[in-house]
Amino acid sequence: MLQVSESQVRLGFAAPDKTEAIRIAGRAMVDSGLIDPGYIDSMLGREAVSGTYLGSGIAIPHGLPDARDLVRRTGVVVVQFPQGVDWGGGEPARLVVGIAAKSDEHIAVLQRLTGVLGDPAEAARLGTTRDPRAIMAVLNGEAPPAPATEPVAVPIDGDSIAVTAPSPHGLHARPATALVEVAKRFHAEIAVRHDGTTANAKSLISLLRLGASGGRPLTVTASGEDAAAALQAIRAAFDAGLDEPAPTAAPVEEPAPRAAPADLDYEGLDYDGRVIAGISASPGVSTGPVWKFQREELTVAETAPDPEAQHRRLDQALAAAAADLRNLHEAFWKKAGAAKAAIFKAHQELLDDPEMVVEAHALIDRGKSAGWAWRAVYEERAGTLAQLADPLLAGRAADLSDVGRRVLRLLATVTETMAALPDHPVILLAEDLEPSDTAKLDPAKVLGLCTAGGGATSHTAIIARSLDIPAVVAAGPSVLDLENGRAAILDGDGGVLVADPSERDRGRAAEARIKVGERREAERLDRYKPAITTDGRRVEVAANISDPAEAVQAVEAGGEGVGLMRTEFLFLQRDLPPDEEEQFAAYRTMVRAMNGLPIILRTLDIGGDKNVPYLRMPAEGNPFLGVRGIRLCFEREDLFRTQLRAMLRASVVGPVRIMYPMIAAPAELERAKAITEAVRRELNVPPVELGIMIEVPSAVMMADRLAREVSFFSIGTNDLTQYVLAMDRLHPVLAPQADGLHPAVLRMVERTVDAARRAGIWVGACGGVAGDPAGAVLLSGLGVTELSVAIPAVPSVKARLRAIAMADAERTARDALDCADAAEVRALVRHRFADAGGVS
């Protein structure tokens, strides 16, 4: 077994920065006969690629794999820097353990070193000790760190304060998260002791493992240049309750437990069952069993040949999952407030736990794959938490599993199989739904949709709104762990799925459904009334449809026309494209159903997220920037001409408008119009109104030129949002952040409307923002005169517009253009229209 000798421990050094500290450690390794001098450069190179700071004042610089021929023998050298060296990230390193490895003999030393990381007090003692034998004993396994018996006498050369765990539930997720956030603001090493056990104050998992219940004494000790300020801030945080809500009644000695203890991070939602939070995508509340539409299996290999690549994979997955959680926190905060969004802050701290990350990387160094290492670490931690006596603290195991699975899904091989739906209605669970999945859904059997990924403009959201069912998206991978048939409540308004609801939960859900039903009945009775604002301005509200049957539904819902007919749905789920007669029959049926109301037929918009195998389109690295929309029509002009013939023949039956998708430049519009005019002359039918989708930034910038050539614009807010913000609306991390109410998108709308006004044409909008409560107000305020929305949303959008003054909408829209982000825009609208029928 590898042993550390006294000659390999160097005490009392100082260095201005980590580069010099690494050189000092490297020279000590050369003196000890472990490496050739050239290996020092490799150690510096490794630091530039991947940081080697472990936490608790310990760093482990080592070289890159391609420099192993410069290692003479396996061993370690420990250099102590009592004053600390800035290693980046704000925490000083006091013990620098230089590693030279020809084999895995050094792993035992690293394992013992990892044990020290769990005790910041012990790490601080070793960082300042004047006895090299103290460091040797720990690294050689001769004397494992022993916890101090007296809580106040914490073995850190620093000051201590006595505090009390917050009541009534102690140091659970929310207060522990608040403590971690305070501790991480300081460079000092900070430890918390409870019943003889020490925890790292900057590690959420470490704090949770203390199991400190409400009212129990704690000792907080800090060591470092800003230790006094850290303790002062921590005392203030404890005095303020560590973000725990103030009790609403006088405390009693034994508070009655709830039927199934809920995570207090969700107290604002007041559910008893297990609450899984996501983003509201379609309003409404439903109760029933869950059913996985797509079964998911995550598999990982145990070993991997390239540790460096696995280190990078893990770091990238952690960064992506962290960004996902930040997006969820922001989205849920702007929908429901800080208290209800607090769980995502706790999840971020679980993900950023230094001990978990260090241990996972150590397993990778032993030859394990990134996925295997990460799963082993988080499952072990979750198992430990689940054993805690306090049920509230034990419940954090589910949160850790959720966080762990978020990362694991980015590291594993994902296998999905389609599951047949049962005969009874269910709440569907899936990663996300594609456009083609719509054909597989029977609305009579779907109570609601809940997906692990996606955002408010994802296909799941669009499908849910079109089916008029509640939906929650971006709920995280753990939602796919729920067993088929498990009872749940889907709260589309609150953006949560509640597993194992109590009877009280079911009662509240029933009350919510009654209120929603009453509001919708009132809207239904007034659905044929025009959307005229209180100051006399009218906005047309049309419907988005995808097949002939929906044309009738659009009229019955109060639609004043069809603002978007997605003709591509005629081309999906088949082996050959529809011929001219089949298309003509479908378009004619729709036109007749409209009974004189206008219908906009959009030409084929295949590509991007909608793929048709029989078109034999080339594989593309980024299909959203490839051959889609009008570009495909030009590539397959035979299909384009056939479709135009069917559309123009149907225009003889009633008012048809034709719209081209994905126009990016005047030349494309000119070519599309020329082909259309040639087909019209062949058929000898009257001209029809032509328009274009505004969904590409270049179209906005050229809107003044384009407006001279068409009768109308229709803004596709979903695509415009992803192109303006450079965020794929189907991206597993960025989708929740792709909000069409971002000021940058609203400014694009303003510019488009201004160009249209100067040319004397009108502007509509047919993306998800048009049916959004706040979006309908802002688009109208910016001058959009037609909103085309999902059929079920027609009555509610009309009712919402009838409840506001256009002057207020215009003023709010102008102010929204000066906001910093979508969250600020939504808060502005919520404040201005708090009494206008639920605008938020």
Automatic annotation (TrEMBL):
Pfam families: PEP-utilisers_N (PF05524), PEP-utilizers (PF00391), PEP-utilizers_C (PF02896), PTS-HPr (PF00381), PTS_EIIA_2 (PF00359). Belongs to the PEP-utilizing enzyme family. It comes from the Bacteria. GO terms for cellular component: cytoplasm. CDD domains: PTS-HPr_like, PTS_IIA_fru. It is found in: Cytoplasm. Gene3D superfamilies: HPr-like (3.30.1340.10), Mannitol-specific EII, Chain A (3.40.930.10), Phosphoenolpyruvate-binding domains (3.20.20.60), Phosphohistidine domain (3.50.30.10), PtsI, HPr-binding domain (1.10.274.10). PANTHER family: PHOSPHOENOLPYRUVATE-PROTEIN PHOSPHOTRANSFERASE. Its main location: cytoplasm. It is an enzyme of class 2 (transferase). The phosphoenolpyruvate-dependent sugar phosphotransferase system (sugar PTS), a major carbohydrate active transport system, catalyzes the phosphorylation of incoming sugar substrates concomitantly with their translocation across the cell membrane. The enzyme II FruAB PTS system is involved in fructose transport. It comes from Azospirillum brasilense. The keyword Cytoplasm applies. Keywords: Cytoplasm, Kinase, Magnesium, Metal-binding, Phosphoprotein, Phosphotransferase system, Pyruvate, Sugar transport, Transferase, Transport. Transmembrane segments: none annotated. Its EC number is 2.7.3.9. Its cofactor is Mg(2+). One of its GO terms (biological process) is phosphoenolpyruvate-dependent sugar phosphotransferase system. This is Multiphosphoryl transfer protein. GO terms for molecular function: kinase activity; metal ion binding; phosphoenolpyruvate-protein phosphotransferase activity. Residues 158-245 form the HPr domain. Residues 2-142 form the PTS EIIA type-2 domain.
